[in-house]
């Protein structure tokens, strides 16, 4: 049973009006990778950030990690604005750790498991018992007895074991939050459940918070307390995972859910690819692909023109269920 995070708790990590743009290619306008995002993550909360490839999820995650400096807006951690001075960032990255999707690419093939896990301790000048810290991290990550793995190399491990080593490398610094970018995408189905169960157990045992970046709504259902659905640089629907995934309000969320095997009805096939982030459409940024607008339902609700011309406000980063959609707002008002 997922622990419910108490509403009103001060966020551990918070983004406010966050924007990240990149220079356009060959004279094109700047690409708006993150285009106005408010997002809070509470202590002990797991938030799933979901959406198609190219929607801005990884850019948002990198900005929250301090790997990219926002063009506008602010990131706050434990009540303090993120300081981009090198020493301050080093201290921050000890408290907020990244877990990547490809454990093979995350691990140096020439380093033993022990060295891979100890690397963070050495970077941060750890003065305690290194061997004990590495042993504890490997044990927490489910590699027991840990000494049996010390001298192994990545190629001697299974995919699931390699991912556990990556997780141990994050845990060894005793972070307060981890950002997991597609943490099980490269793993066999039989191993995915084990890694998800591990992340939940770490939250329960250590009070660890997590932002899980994924395109897989099934994964979000199994691990998250709250879900934020991202499209073209902005969060378009957010709320407790049970609310959003059992009663999605935004047409984009409905389309993403419709392709799951257990979803009722026919899958919604979205036309085309997400627009170029250097040319974000006016009005609702989803309207050029929206199945609700295409079938005339927005016209019936009297919001078709608003969909094409009126931008929607940035959703607040809190725990309440919210949606950025003219049609959904019209339905709620009826």
Automatic annotation (TrEMBL):
GO terms for biological process: peptide transport; transmembrane transport. The keyword Nucleotide-binding applies. The keyword Nucleotide-binding applies. PROSITE patterns: ABC_TRANSPORTER_1 (PS00211), ABC_TRANSPORTER_2 (PS50893). Signal peptide: none annotated. Pfam families: ABC_tran (PF00005), oligo_HPY (PF08352). Residues 18-257 form the ABC transporter domain. Keywords: ATP-binding, Nucleotide-binding, Transport. InterPro entries: AAA+_ATPase (IPR003593), ABC_transp_ATP-bind (IPR050319), ABC_transporter-like_ATP-bd (IPR003439), ABC_transporter-like_CS (IPR017871), Oligopep_ABC_C (IPR013563), P-loop_NTPase (IPR027417). It comes from the Bacteria. GO terms for molecular function: ATP binding; ATP hydrolysis activity. Belongs to the ABC transporter superfamily. This is ABC transporter ATP-binding protein. It comes from Streptomyces xanthii.
